[in-house]
Amino acid sequence: MAKNESIDQIPPGWDYNPATWSQRIPIVILAFVGVIIATYLSLYQLDYIDTVWEPFFGDGSKTILNSKVSNVLPIPDAALGAIGYLVDAVTGVIGGTHRWKKMPWIVIVFGLAVGPLGFVSVLLVVFQPVLFSAWCTLCLGSAIISIAMIGPAMDEMLASLQYMQRAKRSEASTWKVFWGVQSEIEKVK
Amino acid sequence: MWAKILNIVIGLYLIVAPSFFGYSPQASDNGHIIGPIIVTFSIISLWEATQGTRKWNYPFAVWLLLAPWILGYENNLAMVSDMLVGALVIVFSSFEQENKNRYGGGWASLWQKHPQHIQEVNKDEV
User: Chain A residues with CB inside 8 Å of B119's CB?
Assistant: First the structure.
């Protein structure tokens, strides 16, 4: 029984289950490191701390973190980053090892949170030298973390999207399957 | 794997070369914009399920071949370097790695009529 259950968790046409904890925990750890870095940077931007750690680029971090782009929204960009990483971590943790079929919505929210956050951080990396002729070490570190999360998060997203594709072609309601309604999930082949 | 890592190294080179060799502003900005993009797509393509992302480098690599002429680089080294880098990225992005795992037909399955994952389900039923 237990064995059948674990085979049942491997998506059809796959060789492994992309929702196991060994798949997800590294991404969640990266997200938590991102939360810590972004929180530290936003404490500086909100004036709770006076200096910011910058080992390589002199006043670079100060220039970047006080720039107009980083304050274009009502809350500083690092605080938004911290919220983004927190969403990544929470949506990475929620659900069991069969969540690609039992809770497609959380997998798809997770994938959408990880993807755009990574691309926004690349945009911010481009802004640093082009607009301000400066670099910020921890901002670069944060960007690398958010990019490193994209690849490993996307296999689970693919499994859920394929599952939704099967739901659409069966008698089940795609909408209810998306939200994980058990009676509808049973109708999907 | 090695081709993707070389692309990451090339992207990092694009980012640091402008200050190292003292490029003019157009060439500098171009390296600072295209470098991070190539690094990003190459890192994402390290994983099997997203190895197709390496091909997203193509338009940016082609741009590197054209940019010296369109932007009018003043620095010959920048011109030669960017064009060479563009050509190398096109080559390295073309290497397809054989996947160790199957992915139900991959991302292409999402717009196929008879994707692999659905064939697999039907096969099990019979």
Answer: 13
